[in-house]
Amino acid sequence: MENIRTLGALRQSGYRYRSVKDELRENLVARLRNKDRVFEGIIGFEDTVLPDVERAILSRHNMLLLGLRGQAKTRIARLLVHFLDEYIPVVEGSELHDDPLHPISKFARDLIAEKGDDTPIAWLHRSARYVEKLATPDVSVADLIGDVDPIKAATLKLPYSDERVIHFGLIPHAHRGIFVINELPDLQARIQVSLFNILQEGDIQIRGFKLRLPLDISFVFTANPEDYTNRGSIITPLKDRIESQILTHYPKSIDIARQITKQEAHLAAAQQEVVQIPELLEILLEQIVFEARQSAYVDAKSGVSARLSISAYENLVSAAERRALLNQESHTHARIADLWGVIPAITGKIELVYEGEQEGSFQVAVHLLDQALKTVFLRYFPDPDKLRKGKDRDPYGVIRAWFSSGNQVDILQDASNQAYQEALDGVAGLRKLATAYVADDSPLLYTYMELLLHGLASGQVLNKDILEYQLRFRDPLAGMLGDEGEDDDDFDEEDFN
């Protein structure tokens, strides 16, 4: 059908006009009947958000996606373009993509009146039928709706009463397509008022013109609940005109969060060849984000974006890659010690409450990392605190005794694979205990051995000192006896900058 180039040929082809919402609905119905994947790349919303979006499309509703930052609201909006027909016919040269059988602009109506069935037809791809605007306080009615253009009037020698002097805004240019406004509460209230007629009656008003353009647009708005109190609000009459309000959410499980992170992380091909991320490290990384969302130091109203875990994953890979490059190693596994390299990805993506500000973003990031290590440790190993209170045999006895004898172990951030493994193998009882949970020849063995040290430190069985470029594990009484000298420094943020 894309070969059709005139209005007469289009009429003979049997083409029929459909509104954009009917078009979205019919194409979604076809996908659902064929059991096709409807929203490609959206993970974790299959039983919650996406069915609501599908119901809104089937109901031919405008929709508001409401949720905290990093909950795939804009991603969902952009995927709606795939429910449009691949190509649609338009009157050639039309600024508003007029349908040849249903023209709304003066240009298209005049052209069809002049040329009739010989009116030239062009074909518009669905990618050109999506318009997105970030709401900011400086957005004006002219930006969204349009205004009189004095330059056009002077160039064409037209009076201001002529409709042709109008410069149309973004919304009229989205005619027969999808128009998305991100962060709707940031739009000033008086600008939100200008959307009333468009949503309810489908027409616009520009200056003093008696102009009625029956625009055909599917509107999608996104908003963060935090904005309702901090920056602005969606005025009630506008919210009343948006038929479906859909609530989004963060991943509800570690497994879903891992899938999202691995899908969205951008890694160089060379990094993927050199670095392997153990499953345990992926779980730890996501646990940091889950801890942040529950932390008393972090503002829950602001949310913790999925972009934190994505950036942290990329930093984790880069930390392991850098270590491999320094040691001229062609392959390496990421280590728990490499997680200290993700702190810059944490500090920039969490909003702190007053208590968190007092602690400082770096200290809060280290605290979240320690909490994640403790949580994951207790999923795999017995709680040392409960063992002390009970009568069960202490599986950590040999390790305790080794450290009580005055021994310590240093995990250098940039240590070679051999030096790293030798340091862990030097701790009596550590390997034997780890092999109770993972095979002795498993590449994950040393990851579990390192987790044991961090877990025992979180249970106060050991002391963990964060020194310059290294982690030191030792007996808790060693510092009290004063045998560590000047090495027993409190950790300093500057050590990692």
Write the layout of secondary structure elements.
Elements: H1 7-12, H2 20-33, H3 49-58, E1 63-66, H4 73-79, E2 87-91, H5 106-115, E3 121-125, E4 130-134, H6 141-144, E5 146-148, H7 150-156, E6 166-168, H8 170-173, E7 177-182, H9 189-193, H10 196-200, E8 217-223, H11 227-230, H12 236-241, E9 244-247, H13 254-264, H14 269-274, E10 275-276, H15 279-294, H16 306-326, E11 332-333, H17 343-347, H18 354-359, H19 361-380, H20 384-389, H21 397-404, E12 408-412, H22 417-425, H23 430-434, H24 445-458, E13 463-467, E14 470-474, H25 476-480
Parallel strand pairs: 1-8, 1-9, 4-7, 7-8, 10-11
Antiparallel strand pairs: 2-3, 5-6, 12-14, 13-14
Helix pairs in contact: 13-15, 13-16, 15-16, 15-19, 19-24
Question: Can you walk me through this structure?
Answer:
With 497 residues, the protein is of the alpha/beta class. The chain folds into three domains: 7-247, 3-Layer(aba) Sandwich (Rossmann fold), CATH 3.40.50.300; 250-380, Orthogonal Bundle (Helicase, Ruva Protein, domain 3); 390-497. It has helices at residues 7-12, 20-33, 49-58, 73-79, 106-115, 141-144, 150-156, 170-173, 189-193, 196-200, 227-230, 236-241, 254-264, 269-274, 279-294, 306-326, 343-347, 354-359, 361-380, 384-389, 397-404, 417-425, 430-434, 445-458, 476-480, and strands at residues 63-66, 87-91, 121-125, 130-134, 146-148, 166-168, 177-182, 217-223, 244-247, 275-276, 332-333, 408-412, 463-467, 470-474. Strands 4-7-8-1-9 form a five-stranded parallel beta sheet. Strands 12-14-13 form a three-stranded antiparallel beta sheet. It has a two-stranded antiparallel ribbon with strand order 2-3. Residues 483-497 have low confidence and may be disordered.
